[in-house]
Amino acid sequence: MKKFFILFYICLSSLTTFAQLDRSKRPTPGPAPVIRLGKYESFQLANGLKIFVVTNKKLPRVAVNLILDYIPPLEKEVTGLGDITGQMLRTGTQTRTKDQIDEQIDFLGATLYTSSSGAYGSSLKKHQDKLMEIMADLLLHPSFKQEELDKIKTEKKNELSLSKDEPESILQQVKSVVLYGKDHPYGEITTEKSIDAITLDKINTYYATYFKPNIGYMAFVGDITLAEAKALTEKYFSTWKQGTVPTPTYIQPKVPAKTKVIVVNKPEAVQTVLSIAYPIDFKPGPPDAIKASITNDILGYGGFSGRLFQNLREKHGYTYGAYSSLQNDRLVGSFSAGGNIKTNVVDSAITEIVSEMRRIRDIVVTDAELKQTKNIRNGIFVQSLEDPQTIARFALNTARYKLPADYYSNYLKNIEAVKIPDIQAMAKKYILPENAYILVVGNASEFEAKLQQFGEIIHYDAEGNKIEASTSSSTIPADITADKVIGNYINAIGGKEKLIKIRDVSTSMNAKVQGMEVTGLRQQKTPNKLKMSMKIASMGMEVLKIVSNGNKATFSAMGNTQELTGKELESTKAMNTLFPELYYDQIGVTRTLKGIEKVNGSDTYVIELTLPGGSKTTEYFEINSGLKVKQILVGETNGQTVTQTTNFGDYREVSGVKFPYLLSTSFGPQVVDLKVTSIELNKGLGDEIFE
After folding, report:
1. Which helix (H) or strand (E) segment is 161 a member of?
2. What is d(CA 677, CA 521) in angstroms, rounded to the nearest whole number?
3. Residue 291: per-residue pLDDT
4. CB atoms within 10 A of CB 508
5. C-beta separation of 607 from 593 below 8 A
6. Is 654 helix (H, G, I), strand (E, B) or coil?
7. Please, are residues 92 and 101 in contact by the beta-carbon 8 Å criterion?
8. Pick from 170, 177, 347, 435: most CB atoms within 10 A?
9. What's the pLDDT at 34?
10. How far apart are CA 72 and CA 80, in angstroms?
11. What is the DSSP letter of 356?
């Protein structure tokens, strides 16, 4: 009872306080807070390495960050070279193997990693000498080995495989090509081919060209003094030899003369990713940086208060969130606005974004809106000062971008000095709705016709290459039907006579999932019996099992078993049929020829299947070979829409019938490559296996 009354009193007090506030009036913004930035000290080694020290003795830790400040080169056929070179620095030196480095860093309880633009490390203060010794060894005495390069190249390819089916990743890649062009370093895309072209010689050349101290900025943060930093850098980095680093120049990317619509077709996409973007000449620092940033905050960067968020989410419900960004860069900046949009309202979302871009440019903002945005930016800035790394970042930015010495100490004053006319001036300069690229990644057949009102439509593939339109069915020959495409597939894999003689199929396969070796066995028997099991090879632990006797089906994952019922059961029974294409009429699968689309550069016929339970599957059959190369399943799990995409490849003959020996399956961002190790036919599998 006592606890109840305490809680009751707290609630009552809260209600009383709430009632005393006049919620119809916004709080009056206060003046810009007066702040005192933390101090930093600096010095320079004879070889040109510039060092900054931010002393903070709250914790006995030290962090050191090295930035190599060079203009990125065009990597062309070896795009990804700089990134991989940065990773290779962490794989060994002339006196330490990668395993030895890992062991030493773990023993210190430290952190150390390298990149194409430098290195970062942190440790307890008592280990700062050893940390600097190892960091200097990595940077000054690397030893690049082929086996380590092979590992990294494999990892990079896996990363590409994970992202190639993600609409957001596709949008970013295509956007970089469209905005900057492939003759600009920001417009280059890493591919499997470019990764394969990277060699040890090229890595050695990249390292020798760009890892020089005279373009380096090193910042110490933590329990360290200027004298200690001088002693450490003299001891470990004074022998680092300086050199001339190339400073390439590039043609400045321009905004389009008129709006163009860039479409990437992703038929299985549940939503559509949208970005209205263009390059701009927007350098770091004054005179426009603060004014332009506040302008963008009002439009779409200021969280829930941004106009785009309020319009597209709160007012219209087109998306969970809509935002804009205005990025500065010493080579070329960019503007973009958009979000993940419901596919059926993509055209309406574009209209609203363009409307908001025009409104902030053509109609002055209100005083209240400007004050609110200033307060938010003030708060973010002040909060960032709690982190000592912020002061180090300010020091590095001031040096790298030649900012005024008092740029950050006057930051809040300069925010407060922004006036309403400044917002409109910045909007007119940087917000260009009539000179933009409208980039859209999604199921183009659902929205493409509606986008013609916005400008010329240009089609791209996921790797940023222009292609012919691939969503129209008008190019389908008059004599081609869904059943004819399926018939061609049956003939391509061996023909009906051979297929009906197969009574059971046993398929062994393996894959790597999150670094673990997984083995699988799939057994099928006519008419529609199935058993599939996946195990972690090192443990023998079963992680997945599906069993169906043709009438009932169960699904087990990590020890939890669920019996399939209703529509899910009916769909499963239909697709478990051995060579179901032979029996679509009998099992109640309807077929619709949807059009012609490209898959991995080849034209394919697209067939939509409606299964007995009502779910739909989309399948892609290569026109030239007749083979099935892709399948998309869309379903619901726990109320959420789930898309599973499988690519089929490496077809091989087994007793005169072709089977795919590579099945690359994606579930959202996760991609699993199943490699078939053996296929056995007509083993006489007993019915008891499927119970």
Report:
1. helix 146-163
2. 10
3. 95
4. 15
5. yes
6. strand
7. yes
8. 170
9. 53
10. 11
11. H
Tokens 């699968």 belong to residue: 589
Q: What 3-state DSSP class applies to 311? A: helix
Handedness of CA 586, 590, 595, 600 (dihedral sign): negative
Say if residues 488 and 384 touch (Cβ distance below 8 Å).
no
Nearest to 436 by CA among 278, 300, 281, 252: 278
Question: Sorting pLDDT into bands at 50, 70 and 90, what band is 5?
Answer: very low
Q: Report pLDDT digits (tens) over 127-140.
A: 999 999 999 999 99
What does the alpha-carbon distance between residue 407 and residue 391 come to, in Å, rounded to a whole number? 12
Confidence of residue 462 (pLDDT cuts 50, 70, 90): confident
Note the pLDDT tens digit of each residue in 301-316: 866 889 999 999 999 9
Q: Taking a C-beta distance cutoff of 8 angstroms, is the pair 300, 307 a contact?
A: yes
Neighbours of 591 (CB within 10 A): 17
Alpha-carbon gap, residue 446 to 449, rounded angstroms: 8
- What CA–CA distance (Å, rounded) separates 72 from 36? 36
pLDDT at 36: 59
Cβ 403 vs Cβ 285: under 8 Å:
yes
Tokens of 570: 């009916």
Paired sense of beta strands 50-55 and 216-222, if any: parallel
Question: Which backbone phi and psi does 458 adopt, to 5 degrees?
Answer: -125, 135
For 147-157, what is each residue's pLDDT tens digit?
Answer: 999 999 988 98
Report percent pLDDT > 70 for the chain: 91
Tokens of 149: 């390069």
> pTM value?
0.74
Using CB atoms within 10 A of its CB, is residue 538 exposed (0-12), middle (13-18) or buried (19+)?
exposed
Strand pairing report for 466-467 and 553-557: unpaired
Give the separation between CA 443 and CA 48, rounded to whole angstroms: 53
Contacts 24+ apart (CB under 8 A), 655-663: 655/498, 655/681, 656/494, 656/498, 657/493, 657/494, 657/498, 657/499, 657/502, 657/681, 658/492, 658/493, 658/494, 658/627, 659/493, 659/507, 660/628, 663/509
Distance of CA 155 to the CA centre of its chain: 16
Q: Whole-angstrom Cα distance, residue 544 to residue 561?
A: 10
The Cα–Cα gap between 71 and 249 comes to 8
Q: What is the mean pLDDT of residues 121-126?
A: 95
Opening angle at CA 616, ends 613 and 620, nearest 5? 140
Question: Which residue, 158, 110, 156, 152, is CA-closest to 134?
Answer: 110
**CA-to-CA dists, residue 72 to 143, 251, 401, 566, angstroms:** 23, 14, 16, 57
Q: What is the DSSP code string of 16-69? A: HHHHHS-TTSPPPP-PPPP--PPP-EEEE-TTS-EEEEEE--SSSEEEEEEEE-
Classify the C-alpha dihedral 509-512-517-518 as positive or negative.
negative
In tens, the pLDDT along 51-67 reads: 999 998 989 999 999 99
The β-bridge partners of 520 are 509, 534
Mean pLDDT for the stretch of residues 551-579: 81
Match 């072209």 to its residue by tokens.
197
Q: How far is CA 539 from CA 517, 536, 542, 543, 659, in A?
A: 10, 6, 9, 11, 29
Q: Pick the more confident residue, 576 or 322.
A: 322
Q: Judge residue 145's burial from the number of C-beta atoms within 10 Å of its C-beta, 0-12 exposed, 13-18 middle, 19 or more buried.
A: middle
Preceding amide of 287 cis, omega within 30: yes
Amino acid at 377: R
**Tokens 């066995």 — which residue?**
521
Q: What is the DSSP string of 572-615?
A: HHHHTSSSGGGGHHHHT-EEEEEEEEEETTEEEEEEEEE-TTS-
Q: Taking a C-beta distance cutoff of 8 angstroms, is the pair 122, 61 a contact? A: yes
